[in-house]
Write the structure tokens for this entry.
Amino acid sequence: MGYIMDLRKIVGTRPLIMAGACVVVFHNNTILFERRTDNGMWGLPGGSLEPGETMEQVAKRELFEETGLQAKKLELLDVFSGQELYYKYPHGDEVYNVVAAFICKEFDRVIHNDELEVAEIRFFALEELPDNISPPDKPILHAFLKR
């Protein structure tokens, strides 16, 4: 998140519009979640767009950096924005997210977590999804489940 960190040095915690991508990894009727280190909640792998990247590139990069998985194929679920994608991080930074959400069903599987951002990685059955899902991921997950 170099670009956003550089902006934060200028604007402090004021709300930013943050473009990024996330990935719904779907395998054998399960969804991959990561327990975030910043808020302790479960979320989807993803992160912010760096200058010059495409949304698909950021989705693949973040998936690999955070989980070790390499996406073979991504399918665009939708682009999400608006008030329900507003988030205030525990340390005070505020963002209005614009998120391209992708579905990944084909990947190379060597799971490891980035210990700075991810405390734990788990696949959850659709009937047993975690209760404490990170707020910006809820509308994305809801849209995926409606499919």
Q: What stands out?
A: The chain has a mean pLDDT of 94. The beta strands are 16-27, 30-36, 42-43, 46-48, 70-80, 86-88, 94-108, 118-125.
